[in-house]
Specification:
The complex is a heterodimer. Chain A folds into 2 domains: about 1-140, no CATH class; about 160-230, OB fold (Dihydrolipoamide Acetyltransferase, E2P) (Beta Barrel). In chain A, strands 2-3-4-7-6 form a 5-stranded mixed beta barrel. The model of chain A has no long low-confidence stretch (mean pLDDT about 80). Helices cover about 50% and strands about 20% of the residues of chain A. Chain A is an alpha+beta fold. By secondary structure, chain B is mostly helical. Chain B folds into 2 domains: about 5-95, Orthogonal Bundle (Rna Polymerase Sigma Factor, Chain: A); about 110-190, Winged helix-like DNA-binding domain superfamily/Winged helix DNA-binding domain (Arc Repressor Mutant, subunit A, Orthogonal Bundle). Chain B has 10 helices and no strands. Chain B is elongated, with a radius of gyration of 18 Å. The chains are: A alpha+beta, B mainly alpha. The interface of A and B includes residues 9, 12, 20 and 26 of A.
Chain lengths: ~230, ~200
C-alpha cells in the first residue's frame, strides 16, 4: 500500500497545485484567538469594575447594625447580573486561550486563575479612574429592564417597615428635618433628634441617602431616622 | 530526485525535512514512508474500518500534514504533531460518517498483558478470546477515553506526547487515563472478566 498511497498523494499535490498554507496565515489565526482572549479579559475587567462600583454602594458596616435582615436580603444586594456576565467572559477567554497554539498546556484552574487575576487588576484600575461608575450609569440607560436585574440594592433600601429607607433629598430644613423621595416616588418626612450622619455627611438637595430608623406609628410617611449615610459612602 | 540526494534526505531528522519539502514536494514522500504504517495502525486501533477506508483517511491526513507544514511548532515532537493531525482527522471522520467506531486491535499485541496487569483482569481464558473481549470493552468507551488508552498502552506514548496530541493539559490527560482504566475495570467486572 505504501508506494501506491505515496504516489497518489504526491500526484494529488502536483495536479491540484496544493501548497502549504503560508506561515502568516497560520499565525494570523493564532493572533485572532489571542485578540478574542484579550478582548474577553478586557470586557470582563470592565464588567468587574461595574460590579465593584455596585458593591461600593453598599456599606457593610451598616448591615452589621441592622437587625432582622435575612441572609437572602444581604445576598440580594450583590451584583448578580454582572457576576453572570463575568462568568461568561471568563469562559470565553479560557475557551479561546485553549484554541491558541500553546494555550492548551495551561491547566484549567491555572488558566482561570490567570484570567481572573488579570481581570481583577484591570477592573480595579478601571474602577478607580471612574469607568465603573460611568459604565453602570450607561448600562442603566441602555440595557432594558436593567433596574429589574440589578435593583436588589434598591429593593433592600425600600423597606421602611423593616427600618430601611433610601431615596433622594428633595428639601432640607436642617439636619434633623428632611424631605426625601423614595425609589417608589413617594415622599417621606425624615426627622430625628439625634441622627448619626455617618462619614461626616451633610444633607443637601439631590443627594441620595440610606436611612436606618423606623416609621412613625401615628403619622403616615414619617420616618424617624437614627443613622443616615450617603448612598455612595 | 537523484539517488544520492534521496540517501542524504533520508538521513535527515523529521523537522529538518520541512524546508526541503517546502522547496520540493517530492521530498514529502520521505515523511509518508516514515509515518504511513504507524498512522495506519493508529487508525485501525481507533476505528474498525476496512483497508480502503483506512487508505482514504490516510490520504486526507497526509494532505493535511502537507498543507499545514508551516504550522509545525518546533517545541513539539514532530511525531506528536503528526499524530495530532491524524487524531483530529479520525474524529472528523467519525462525525462525517456517523458510524460507531469499532476497535480493530491485533490480539497478539503485548497490549493485553500490560493492560490486564494494570486493571487486574482475568487472564486465564485463552489469549485470543481475552483479546476480543477486551476489544469489545474498549469499544464501549467514549472517544477521549478510548483514545488515551490506545495512545498510552498500544502506541506507548508518554503523558507529554498524549497532551500534545490531544491538545489537553497534562493533568487532564492523567485524569482521563485513570478514569478510562476505572471504566474498563467496571465493564470487565460486569462481564465477569475481572478477578474480583
Amino acid at each position: 500500500m505504501t508506494n501506491d498511497l505515496k504516489n497518489e498523494i504526491i500526484t494529488k499535490i502536483k495536479t491540484e497545485s496544493l501548497h502549504p498554507k503560508p506561515r502568516w496565515q497560520i499565525l494570523l489565526v493564532d493572533w485572532v484567538w489571542w485578540v478574542i482572549f484579550g478582548g474577553a479579559v478586557f470586557v470582563g475587567s470592565l464588567v468587574l469594575s461595574v460590579a465593584i462600583s455596585y458593591l461600593a454602594q453598599n456599606d457593610w458596616r451598616l448591615y452589621s447594625s441592622v437587625m432582622g435582615l435575612s441572609v437572602s436580603d444581604i445576598l440580594s444586594s450583590l451584583p448578580l447580573f454582572w457576576l453572570v456576565v463575568i462568568l461568561v467572559t471568563v469562559w470565553l477567554a479560557s475557551h479561546n486561550l485553549e484554541l491558541t497554539r500553546r494555550g492548551y498546556q495551561l491547566k484549567t484552574p491555572k488558566l482561570i486563575g490567570v484570567i481572573l487575576t488579570l481581570s481583577f487588576f484591570i477592573g480595579s484600575f478601571s474602577y478607580f479612574i471612574g469607568w465603573g461608575d460611568e459604565l453602570e450609569n450607561f448600562s442603566a440607560r441602555l440595557i432594558p429592564h436593567y433596574q429589574n436585574f440589578n435593583s436588589a440594592n434598591l429593593k433592600l433600601w425600600s423597606n421602611p417597615d423593616k427600618g430601611l429607607l433610601g431615596g433622594e433629598i428633595i428639601a432640607v430644613a436642617d439636619q434633623k428635618n428632611l424631605l426625601v423621595r423614595d425609589f417608589n416616588g413617594q415622599d417621606w418626612l425624615v426627622i430625628g433628634e439625634d441622627i448619626d450622619w455617618l462619614g461626616g455627611a451633610r444633607p443637601k438637595n439631590g443627594s441620595k441617602i440610606k436611612i436606618i430608623g423606623r416609621t412613625d406609628d401615628k403619622e403616615g410617611r414619617v420616618f424617624i431616622a437614627e443613622v443616615i449615610q450617603l448612598w455612595r459612602p | 530526485m537523484s539517488s544520492l540526494l534521496t540517501t542524504e534526505v533520508a538521513k535527515k531528522k523529521d523537522e529538518d525535512l520541512i524546508p526541503l519539502v517546502l522547496a520540493n514536494s517530492e521530498v514529502f514522500g520521505v515523511i509518508i514512508d516514515r509515518y504511513n504504517e504507524a498512522l495506519a495502525r493508529y487508525i485501525r486501533r481507533l476505528t474498525r474500518v476496512d483497508e480502503d477506508e483506512i487508505k482514504d483517511i490516510l490520504q486526507e491526513i497526509f494532505i493535511k500534514i502537507y498543507r499545514n507544514l508551516n504550522d509545525f511548532d518546533h517545541s513539539l515532537k514532530f511525531s506528536s504533531w503528526i499524530y495530532r493531525i491524524a487524531h483530529n482527522q479520525v474524529i472528523d471522520y467519525w462525525r462525517r460518517s456517523r458510524s460507531r467506531p469499532m476497535t480493530a486491535v491485533d490480539p497478539d499485541d503485548g497490549f493485553w498483558s500490560s493492560l490486564a496487569d494494570e486493571l487486574d483482569l482475568e487472564k486465564e481464558i485463552g489469549r485470543q478470546e481475552f483479546g476480543s473481549q477486551v476489544r469489545l470493552l474498549i469499544d464501549e468507551l467514549s472517544g477521549d477515553y478510548r483514545a488515551v488508552i490506545i495512545l498510552r498502552f498500544l502506541e506507548e506514548k508518554d503523558y507529554q506526547e498524549i497532551s500534545d496530541i490531544m491538545k489537553k493539559p497534562l493533568g487532564t490527560v492523567a485524569t482521563l487515563i485513570n478514569r478510562a482504566k476505572k471504566k474498563l475495570k467496571t465493564l470487565a467486572e460486569q462481564k465477569g472478566l475481572s478477578n474480583q
